[in-house]
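Materials and Methods. Structural model of Citrate synthase. The 157-residue sequence of Citrate synthase from Homo sapiens was retrieved and submitted for structure prediction as follows.
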Amino acid sequence: MALLTAAARLLGTKNASCLVLAARHASASSTMYGGMRGMKGLVYETSVLDPDEGIRFRGFSIPECQKLLPKAKGGEEPLPEGLFWLLVTGHIPTEEQVSWLSKEWAKRAALPSHVVTMLDNFPTNLHPMSQLSAAVTALNSESNFARAYAQGISRTK
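The predicted structure was written out as tokens:
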């Protein structure tokens, strides 16, 4: 639950910042934060591509992430769970937090049969990122967030 607590804390801070931005720059921010004139969209700040420094995740460069994020025992690169935690919370996770998240993901790892069938039917030469993109998109049919968003859930929930 530490992930949800940290994310909720960050969201509260970001929400306050968005309200200030909306008040100061009403016409421009209403387009971005108000759904872009009837188009569904999201504003995000998790990563930035700098032409000189490369990608930064929540302000950390790739070398900084490689140094600071938890690694598997004997591993040299950060675990994906650690980068996910950083993106969601804005904080470098502890090894315990990464271990908890890994177990949480394992509990939720089952795929709906239609996604498995789709993946099994892809051509063998289809690029792995294309397969991942298609699979994640197909998972939308099971998404509680997508269902609530389509029903017009309040921005404060």
